[in-house]
Amino acid sequence: MNFREKARLQYFKIKKVKCPAFAKEPVIFNAKGFNHIFYKGARSERDFKDIQTRVRLLDRAVILLKKSGVVQEENEYRAESKGKIKEFKFWAFEGVIEDRRIKVVVRQIGEGRKHFWSVIPAWRSVRFSKKVKNYRNNPARY
Asked: pLDDT (tens digit, 9 = 90+) per residue, 45-61?
């Protein structure tokens, strides 16, 4: 079994996580989030070390989502896709899990379900470009 197949098994075993910040509404782990771990925007593949790091951090991402009661960043934007305007919303959770500083991003398209979008190690200070709302400057420790 190659790395991608092992990562797929690990990822899709998660299915969903209840997050206190969303009043226990589940965050779904679907194909969109899995593909984002492996690919950047226009389907260009990420560097293999970056992919390995993100896959290794998945377990910590689940812990952070289960414990996070506060959203650190919010962002939303609208984009045209296939002649229709879609609204995208993003929420970011920051924390230190098992002595590793991470940021987990959750995305929602329109009124759809919230789904895991990304896990970022030792993130840059400002990731989103528009309408950033920082609720806390310091990450939570769990």
From this structure: 999 999 999 999 999 99
C-alpha 134/C-alpha 137 separation (Å) is 7
Q: Which candidate, 20, 38, 51, 36, places its Cα nearest to that of 115?
A: 36
- Residue 30: give the domain boundaries: 3-141
Left, alpha or beta for 44 (phi > 0: left; psi -120 to 50: alpha)? beta
Give 108-120 pLDDT, tens digit per residue: 999 999 999 999 9
- With 0-12 / 13-18 / 19 or more C-beta atoms within 10 angstroms meaning exposed / middle / buried, residue 14 is middle
Kindly tell me if the per-residue pLDDT of 68 is higher than 50.
yes
Q: Using CA atoms, how far apart are residues 76 and 112, in angstroms rounded to an integer?
A: 14
pTM: 0.84
Domain count, the chain: 1
